[in-house]
Queue: 3 jobs
Job 1
Amino acid sequence: MKGVGCAAILLLFGMAGPAHSEASPDADGAQPRQNHINAHVILGEALQIKGDLDGAIAEYQKAINAEPENYLAHYDLGIALYAKGDLDGAIIEYRKSIRIAPNNYLAHNHLGAALYGKGDLDGAIAEYYKVFQTNPDYLDAHYNLGIALYDKRDLDGAIIEYRKAIRLESGDFRAHNNLGVALSDKGDLDGAIAEFRKSIRLNADYTHAYGNLGAALNAKGDFDSAIIECRKAIRIHADEPNSHYILGNALRNKGNIGGAVIEYGEAIRLQPDHPDAHVNLGAVLHQKGQIEDAITEYRRAILIKPALPNAHYNLGLAFQAKGNLEGAIAEFREAIRLNPKFDNAQKSLAGLLESKSDLKAASGEMRKALKPGR
């Protein structure tokens, strides 16, 4: 069962501000020319603030045509392209800006965000660390680095970076929330709950923190409090699928199967590709005796995310309940392939093999399940 909801991923960055190029007047009229180039950059920034990205891009390109080594124009063009969703173009422009001005820590931070968006976590992490060579206390880079390290499953590293961000800005509610998520994944539920509550105190409308708090309370066994927090999240933002999903988990744990079915269904309506909601909806339908409907949900989960051990295991249980033993064996084997330490799948497979009189194979599976240190 899925635990705490996702971290609120918000890659932080800002415009370069008023640091435009300057040149001293000389005999050949360099100053008027430079002023003309700067005017394109300034106009581009103004258009971008107004939301006219195409107009901004055109102005930055005019500045670059007039002065190809203008680091600020390349940097601002990268921001505009990123906002347009052109990550490849943004990466090119940030790198041009950095080649011209290697100490432009803002460009390194933005390049990290663009690389993160492309799924290049190692590249993003490298750029965030470069920020600290020039500005060790740059809040946004610590926050962004925490997100990238979390996604790399370096929970200790992520916790360090979120705490640095909070040291620099104690009122950063997103950093408190994300720190809570990392602490929860480390098994520190009390620490996580404390951080989620801090996030809520700083921003009473931050739905992610309520949902995550609900998930942590659910994991602690405080189902009533979990339900209260999830319903707060839904009152703030009714269209957040994870809030409904986590509420479904808490209701299921309270024994309210009908309520859980409704909440999982709502999570799926809002996010049809939510694999965990499909798995858990299948599980409660199975509990209600609706085996065919459960099989449908497990298959939908696998279609969305094939490498989901619980979905294969639960599908195996459903097949077993329907008398499809060969199908059950195949699903248990797949669950074990995906997670070799999946003890319940090992035991279920051993039991089925034993029932089929394959005692040698059953004995082997049971030895794996009972192996010390698993």
Note: The radius of gyration is 26 Å.
Job 2
Amino acid sequence: MRFMIIVKATQDSEAGVMPGEQLLSTMQKYHEELVKSGVLVDASGLKPSSKGWRIKYSGDKRTFVDGPFAETKELVAGYTIINVKSREEAIELTKRFPNPAVDGKTGDQTKLQELYARLVTKTGPYEDQMFVDQLSNVNREINEADQKVGASAFERFNQLMKEWTALKTDAETALR
């Protein structure tokens, strides 16, 4: 089961204020634990809404609205996606999520901040764990090959790119 842990935006995150070193270090340790336990799928912070846009729909009509957006309580500052065996495991991992409101300078954890988590919908071949594992392994090997120097690394990289393309083609075919 995949869950997305969502960090709500604040006035600071919308102003482009980066978290302090203390919070960044704590978040890194938390995510490293998720990697070691094999449950981390993806995690990232998001730029302020001033760097984004919205598309509003009215029937077939689409309207482009450039950021920033005034209501920070409706915005997302970051996310972590985990792949776990149960809702209970996801809840426990979410409870361990570092307080995103720590200012990093004083270590003040009294600031009010809120996370929420949502179950990710399963669609297409991505729900098949073997397929997800294959993509993860290919991505890992591509990254490892990218770190090495020499013809053998280049050949392995090309081989992995072919495997990646074949998996992507299979996924696209299955989604049609």
Note: The helical segments are 11-14, 21-36, 87-95, 129-147, 151-175.
Job 3
Amino acid sequence: MWERARDRRAIGHDPLTAEGTRHKAQGKRHKAEGTRQKAQGRRHKAGLRTRARSCAFCILVAWHNRFMAGLIVLLLSCVACVQAPVLPDETPPARPAALDSSSDERIDLRIGATATLPGTATTVTFVRVVSEGRCPKGVQCVWEGDAAVELRVAPAGGDAQTITLHTNDRFERQAVIGGVTVRLEQLEPYPEADKPIAPDSYVVTLRASAG
């Protein structure tokens, strides 16, 4: 029996030797696998670096193209501005709109203020309150009283004239100026007992209509 065992070891059938050979083969395979994984990792990193460089290049090219496009647009705009001829202003001067016979215009003026009558080049200025004789609120009077205002009218190309209009219909309450009828509608504020009115607080309301 011992001779048979020696014969098997002699011809390579030693169990220990076969086991060691298998371990070595497995070790070589593991080492080869590790080497292959390392190679794959290096290739992956190289691919990432290549893609990163490609992306950076693409971004740089896009930015350069956008910059050049903007520069070209700016240059073309400058050339257009330089070459564009300057045309004289041929817009006719604005003319006042004619006042329709069926409408009227309200004009509010403080003392010293000036307005242009619609449809004309005539101006009217509220100069002063000539008299304040309206019956104050809270007081019983024989009659309603009257207030008078002074207006200065200046037609275009003509001499200014002064007119006086009243709040009471018993007196002259309107005047025709340059084909436009100007009527005194009201004078505010209305007087109250024991409350004097400051001159600069007066506001006259005129109504302009076709004469």
Note: Residues 15-83 form the longest helix (69 residues).
